[in-house]
Amino acid sequence: MKHDTPTDITLTLAASTFAALGSEQRLSVLRSLVRAGSDGLTIGELGKRTGVTGSTLTHHMKILAQAGLVTQEKQGRSIICAAVAYDAVRDLSTFLLKECCADSTSPDKDHSHG
Hints:
The chain is of the alpha+beta class. The protein has five helices and three strands; from the N terminus they run H-H-E-H-H-E-E-H. It has a single domain (11-93), classed as Winged helix-like DNA-binding domain superfamily/Winged helix DNA-binding domain (Arc Repressor Mutant, subunit A, Orthogonal Bundle). The radius of gyration is 17 Å and the shape is elongated. The model is unreliable at 1-6 (pLDDT under 50).
């Protein structure tokens, strides 16, 4: 997932990235990798933490990697998986919220988000 600027995201790109996250198992895999930080996790440890193993985990990792959300790197006999999506996920959030309440007719248009 390539971005020119932190908020330069198209509807098409947002839709394809959200589609990659449109599975509870894939979302669980990504969350586990985000929790692990830049060190990542071996494919075996990732499977233990998420309960997703074997060909199912391989399938989900392929989809997440194609969306630019994770990487897989062979280190010796292990495959290390890591999240690389911090900016991409932030961009998705910005995409959804940047025009929040723009069409609201409510007198209180300041709907803070945190």
